[in-house]
Amino acid sequence: MAISNYIVKVFLFLALLTVSINGMAEAKSADDVKLIVSLDRDTIGFDEQAMLQILVEGSTQNLPNPKIPTFAAFEVYSQGRSSNISIVNGKVSSSVTYRYMLMPHKKGTFLIDNIAIVHNNSRFKGNPVKLTVLNTGTSVSPQLQDQVSEHGDHGKDYFLEAVVDNKNPYVNEQVTLTLKFYTAIRYYGNAELSEPTTTGFWNELLGNKAPYKQRINNRTYKVIERKYAVFPTQTGPLTIGRATIHIKVPTRNAQKRDPFGMFDNFFNTGKKVAVRSKPIRLNVRSLPDKGRPDDFTGSIGDFKISASVDKRQVEVNQPVTLTLRITGTGNIKAAAEPVIPELDDFRIDRASSSENISKVNDRISGTKVYEELFIPKHPGTLVIPSISYNYFVPSEDSYREISTKPIKIRVTKPEGYVTSSDIPYANSNLFIGSEAKDIRYIKDDLGETSHTGELVFTTPAYLIVNGLSVLMLAGMILVRRRREKLASDISYARSRYASKAAKKRLVRARSLSSPDKAGDFFSEVHLALISYIADKLNISPHGLTTDYLGDLLAKHSADEELIGDIVSVLQRCDFGKFAPTSITQEEIDELLLKAEQIMIRLASVHFA
Amino acid sequence: MRNSLIIIVITVLLTSVVVSAASDMDSLFALGNKAYEDKDYKTAIAEYLTILDKDVESASLYYNLGNAYFESGDLGRAVLYFRRAQRLAPADEDLVHNLEFVREFSRIQMEGVQLNPINRFIESLLKSYRLDTLAWIASIVFVSLCLLLIGRFGLGYNNSVLRVTTIVVLIVLLGVSGLTTYKYRNDYLTRWGVVVSSDSRILSGPNESAELEFEGAPGLVVEILSETSEYFNVLFENKRRGWIKKSYLSEI
Question: Which of A92, A281, A443, A503 has the fewest CB atoms in 10 Å of its CB?
């Protein structure tokens, strides 16, 4: 019997192999793309998941990705892909399998359709599949049905158990969830675990425990444990969903050993079953109001806080890094930041925060580090005050407050000025009034006064001193230049002094204006006029005749009347010099007057 | 003779007017000081301001006003008058001390930006000198130069000592004139102001709807850059700009 079974198996195997090779050959011959959609089961419970599998096949290496439409009834999570490419006789064929986990939102029967790919401008649509989500949490897929019915609770070959250490936790308190997978038989391949749904929790995997053996009802089970730390994030009833393990177990016949058992594993691919845990309902309590600090931050666990600075002496506006370290057990990720009050002495900037989580003895613990930049606003010995931190201790049902120690920092004023990044620092340690004892006393004397806003540049004294200097300099330079010109330019000098010399001669003539000195008088008047004109014209007075003089004056635009008067006076002088006895006093006075008038009129003649 | 008599009479009258005005100022100043001693700072301020109203100023007057305002709790005006006094007597130790002292009480303080080395050197050089002093030093050097030039170009002296001395004095004159100009520009051409109101908001624009840049505080010294009918555009010591209502600020 066993031999006949074995022969049948070998035959079937060979037949399958042949069929599949033929199938592949046919697939290769068809130069198109196929899209095959399938579900691992067509019915699931509300808190379970289904695996959607999309197989894309084609005679090309570059198979496109399928487009998954949005499903209102499911959340879709990609579970990866596997691909297979073969090249036979230069022909390429490839297949890619995409896996998606579907988590239902609703109950009912849903059509999964419209999964498609686009290749070479053609659209290839996959076959529709149906998935039914039942109200109950258990699927009854016949092909994946586990063996509960046959063995009763502890008579099963395998079962999955989920337990928590606390079904009545406070919000944000750690609950340790343990999944225990018991198997009394061998299974093929690896067990595939679908994690339990933990909506309403923040969870962190604690890890797997090394497998151990346990006897239950006279059966020895291999137990694999997997633990999670789950932290409820809301109050009220919350459910940790089912976890599912998919395994392949031997068929019932195969479990019975035969002499050719060595072939069992080879030929018997087994039956795929899903092993599920029961959902766990928790009642999450809110934190007690009694003793709750006003500034409670929501942290739960058991913590310590410490503070340190990177330097104890800095200059104004130079930052000091304050490192606040919160260490302890509890949801360290959710541990709130310590509240730092506004400080008059410092400007505070957030630098960074980091966390380090460790899992010891199935508890989440770790350190959260906040770095704050404290920028001193003014010099002096400044204090970073004690920073308090509160949290709730679930084991004691009470709140606790811890705090750092104050830290003194010496702040120095930089040399000169410093570049200031921001405004102003406050210095409110001083108050006007009573403490103002160091102000120096008022002045008794009004002192030197001036008009409001008067500038020294506009005062008379300043203007006079500076103005006089300029005038003196200008005057002296002019005098010097004139002197130099007089010394170097005889014509100019003679012209410049002609009037002065003529006037002197006329004065002298006046002193000689009497009939007894008539000869000298006439000579002097004659010389005064001749010399004046000769000096003005820079010519020698000697040998100047009256007629020549008249011509010269006419050349220099002197009017004819003036020329006539000059000629007349000069002729009279010539006459008088040679016949002085016949001259009366009146004639002398008249001539002198006339000569003086001529001198005045000559001043308007331009000799240049 | 008659003209001489009139001149003498006018001179005597003018002198007596000036002398009586001076004694009037002194007595007002003394009254202010008396009130200050009696801790009646309000009266002291009133007496001092009466002198200012007569278009008379002095470093001591501004100094005492600064003290009186400080003692009465008006930090902004204390800084304002100390700064005004500083223009007239920058080297006065009491003034330097009191100004530094009262600024410590300011709710808000600022660090200025770092000056370049040249400006820092000039500032240190001019710190103790008032504009009048510098102007007179420049004037003396200028007169000296004029005399040297008179000797050279007016009297015709021309020797190497005179030439070198002239060049040296000319260089000195350029230096002193430059410093005087710097001081004049800094003290008088640049418009400075002091925040005197305790409610002084520095805005991003010259209107009420502009964003608040930061809250000012009495005693902050600012440079006035421009103005509208209601606002000054001001530059703070740390080079931040903003707009402040004119009523919040007093010009130094």
Answer: A281
